[in-house]
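Thread: DUF3500 domain-containing protein, structure

OP (GT): Posting the sequence first so everyone is looking at the same thing. Length is 344 residues per the record. Can we get the structure tokens written out before standup tomorrow? I want them in the notebook alongside the other entries.
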Amino acid sequence: MKNLSTIFCILFVLLFSINSKSVTKINNTFTPGQVVNAANTFIKSLNADQQKAVVVDYVRENATKWTNLPCGLQCRLGLLLGSLTDTQLQNAKAVVKAAMGTQVSRGYDQAMQILAADGFLGTSRNGYSAGNYIIAFLGKPSLTGKWQLQLGGHHLAVNLTFDQGKVIGASPLFIGLEPKTWTADGVTYTPLKANHDLLTGILASLNTEQLENAKLNNGFSDILVGPGADGKFPTTKSGLRVGSLNKQQKAMVVDAMKAWVQIADDATAKKLIATYTTEIDNTYIAYFGGTALTNKGDYIRIDGPSVWIEFICQPGAVFPAEVHYHTLYRDHTRDYGGGFSFFN
């Protein structure tokens, strides 16, 4: 297992060695039709048993079957990346690259760095590996039907829902990270640094009164609306209303949203951000603990009419002297493409 983890860590480092200091575009000109073509190419490269495992029914039970736990296929559907041949793995990566955003350390690149982080963990402890992540299709990929793409494993759950060839939902999205930073082959990786810094930048911009209004009375042990908590948003919004902030501060909140929403292809992310921007005045920010988001239990969220983003510092699992991050992006009405009803 340790050797397998090491192999996958090296593989992903070599394939995705990108310095993530800045946010720029990488080459990706895929269209929705190319997403479907890439999916069908991947499926055709599989044997009959693999095809049966990777394409499952698009139903609520399957759509909501995701978690951040390192439990492989015991708690997920689909195929393990580590079970694929080299050609099949390349085909699988072509699908997710086609479907996801093109920003460095966001979208596809960020997801691959999260997988590489698990490969790094696997060099220190059994059970962690980039090969323990899955890919699954809920419904047959097509330009006419409704279907969902899942890419998931420990510290990552991507759920992109398509209908008539377009993405109609880019959430739920879970991203976690341990360690927060690591170096391999001379390249330093910090795939959630921008997410962290954008949120702390918002808090740093608030005056004493605003911070007092934004602070929650109670903290949490983990993200609030995580796996298995679909639809369980707080019934009342808490914290500081963004509509009370100045123009620059509002822009900072919008920029922070992008760090999660850009998991989706660029056109879809742009549309979602446009919607969230129109709702900005009725969006709230709330936090608990320290404003630097460096200690266990430090927490912040953005809660709008549509958007929901959480970020919390967790105690280290493999590296107990450090904290690691759990984050979540949801949409009150667009999770899983809005195709299922949830009740608090």
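GT: Both are above now. Quick notes for whoever picks this up: The chain has two domains: 2-20+28-184, 193-338. The longest helix spans residues 107-122.
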